[in-house]
Design brief:
- The chain is about 80% helix and about 0% strand.
- It has about 100 residues and is mainly alpha-helical.
- The protein has one domain.
Length: about 100
């Protein structure tokens, strides 16, 4: 089904917004993991491990939804068809999403 330019622009904006959200979630995860943590058995370790689990689940869920949406919508195939000179880069991105 062909998209209008307006629909296509809205979809691209949606994907770019998702990319920004994923970058923020990844940055928050990195910051969390770079901070000192209590050793197992120390006070606060259970709280830290629970917070880490929540952070990792949030990252996983965001990535999973995003990758699934890109796969289902045929993003990579569409990009390769529209921009044949970029096919190697598109293929690399597609492998990163697998």
């Amino acid at each position: 089904m062909a998209q209008t330019k307006q629909e296509q622009a809205a979809w691209v904006k949606h994907m770019l917004d998702e990319h920004a959200e994923l970058r923020e979630t990844l940055a928050a995860t990195r910051t969390f993991l770079e901070n000192p943590r209590p050793d197992p058995g120390e006070t606060g370790f259970h709280r830290w491990a629970t917070a880490m689990s929540k952070q990792l689940v949030e990252l996983y869920d965001g990535l999973f939804r995003h990758f699934r949406e890109e796969e289902c919508c045929g993003v990579f195939e569409d990009l390769a068809r529209r921009y044949p000179r970029a096919s190697a880069r598109v293929e690399r991105y597609q492998k990163e999403h697998e």
